[in-house]
TrEMBL record:
PROSITE patterns: DEHYDRATASE_SER_THR. It comes from Novosphingobium malaysiense. This is Threonine synthase. It comes from the Bacteria. GO terms for biological process: threonine biosynthetic process. Keywords: Amino-acid biosynthesis, Lyase, Pyridoxal phosphate, Threonine biosynthesis. One of its GO terms (molecular function) is pyridoxal phosphate binding. It catalyses: O-phospho-L-homoserine + H2O = L-threonine + phosphate. Its EC number is 4.2.3.1.
Length: 466
């Protein structure tokens, strides 16, 4: 399996190379040269498999010769052995049509664990084959940071620098990052938004003064391996609800488009997906793009769902590339226009291709709160604000009642206790395994939202590439 850049001019890489590189050298994102596809019979044969074995089967075509199947299975078994629920991503029924896929049973209580626990093992496996050191630079709107830090804390040959917008993540999210005191972990609170942090990370990948000295790697969903691991839980849910003989719809709360793009990949691989519902909060660039073709950057509005407070959705480029005929030169020109003007219109081919599988919905603060309340009062389920955006969109989807709709529950409600309590009168408790979070010491550096300051800090604390 070869990986190519969405912008057409970077060297093609194998899975190991794409995993360690993160962002392509031309600024694009890596995607497989072609989508592997399972037959209906092959999908049916996956029913009932333990999650780790299902993960190995779904991911094997993407991994290619970089790992043997046996070694891949060992890594998935190790990664998912840390989850608090034996099913890893259990499915719960709310009513006749609505289901919730709980993706928060990992170490940091968010869906990012499903991919990042495995990505940390991939890094360790591939780095052990050489004398190379890896400098991970990431941006987080809340959950990626803690999941990535947990996955690589204390690992040899890896330093991680995680940027988060100061004051714009929840107390639980912040502490899950800043209380990890391993010497290879560096938390940076910047003045600005997540989009500002993400832009600085992308700039560092293009900064030869940094890339000549350090092997810069990515844990954000710009890293293909992270998206690949997220494809698995679409298969897990689909199989439980009747795949390949029955199509299932998924409602996905998203800001950066990575989680829902994984559903698109599952559909390309043969999983019968009735519809992918893109659920946003008031930071609705994706809703506007899918409903009107207008992909224009607005001002980030802080909300009770901070992981979705994003106005530039990096992974959307992967979809536009695939729907636009995989023309790297055209994609590079389209993204250059967006980066220059902060505005872009989707082409007719992109809009028509997206409409076949996607629909979108925007939830404001009142709709988010009322959905948290509905789930508690009618189903006895506490859900967090991000999941509430997804469930609001699922219930408003207008899909045929015979089609099950699975909302991805992306975070444990205890990560956002104030918002949940305001809506339900019930304050969720942290699971016992993280119950002492607010008693732990924090370590974090505050820096201005200026690239020079970030680059200087990374350069003074990271290990050179070799």
């Amino acid at each position: 399996m070869e990986y190519i850049s969405t912008r057409g001019s970077a060297q093609a890489l194998d899975f190991e190379g794409a995993t360690l590189a993160g962002l392509a050298s031309d600024g694009g994102l890596y995607v497989p040269r072609e989508w592997p596809r399972f037959s209906g019979e092959e999908i049916a044969d996956m029913a009932g498999l333990p999650y780790a074995e299902l993960a190995a089967k779904v991911m094997a075509p993407f991994v290619g010769d970089s790992l043997t199947y046996e070694r891949l299975l060992e890594l998935t078994t190790e990664a998912y052995g840390r989850f608090a629920h034996k099913a890893v991503t259990p499915l719960r029924q709310l009513d006749e049509q609505q289901w919730v896929l709980e993706l928060f049973h990992g170490p940091t209580l968010a869906f990012k664990d499903v991919a990042l626990q495995l990505l940390g093992l991939f890094f360790e496996e591939f780095l052990s084959r050489s004398d190379r050191n890896l400098t991970i630079v990431g941006a987080t709107s809340g959950d990626t940071g803690s999941a990535a830090i947990d996955a690589v804390a204390g690992r040899e040959k890896v330093d991680i620098f995680m940027l988060h917008p100061k004051g714009r993540v929840s107390d639980v999210q912040r502490r899950q990052m800043t209380t990890v005191l391993a010497p290879n972990v560096h938390n940076i609170a910047i003045d600005g938004s997540f989009d500002d942090a993400q832009a600085m990370v992308k700039r560092m990948f293009a900064d030869t003064a940094m890339t000549d000295r350090f092997a810069i790697g990515a844990v954000n969903s710009i890293n293909w391996a992270r998206l690949m691991a997220q494809v698995v839980y679409y298969f897990a849910a689909g199989l439980q609800l009747g795949a390949p003989h029955r199509a299932v719809a998924f409602s996905v709360p998203t800001g950066n488009f990575g989680d829902v793009f994984a559903g698109y990949v599952a559909a390309q691989m043969g999983l019968p997906v009735a519809k992918l519902i893109v659920a946003t909060n008031v930071n609705d660039i994706l809703h506007r793009a899918l409903s009107t073709g207008d992909y224009s950057q607005g001002t980030v509005t802080p909300t009770a769902a901070p992981s979705m407070d994003i106005q530039v959705s990096s992974n959307f480029e992967r979809l536009l590339f695939d729907l636009g005929g995989r023309d790297g030169k055209a994609m590079a020109a389209q993204m250059a226009g967006f980066e220059a003007t902060k505005a872009m219109q989707l082409t007719n081919a992109q809009r028509e291709g997206a409409s076949a599988l996607f629909q979108s919905c925007r939830a404001d603060a009142d709709e988010m709160a009322s959905t948290i309340r509905w789930a508690w009062e009618n189903c006895g389920e506490l859900i967090d604000p991000h999941t509430a955006c997804g469930l609001f969109a699922a219930r408003a989807s207008g899909l045929d009642e015979a089609t099950p709709v699975v909302t991805l529950a992306t975070a444990h409600p205890a990560k956002f206790p104030e918002a949940v309590e305001r809506s339900t009168g019930h304050r969720p408790s942290l699971p016992a395994r993280v119950g002492d979070l607010f008693d732990r010491e924090e370590k974090c550096v505050a820096l201005p939202g200026e690239y020079a300051a970030i680059a200087e800090f990374v350069a003074s604390h990271a290990s050179p590439r070799a």
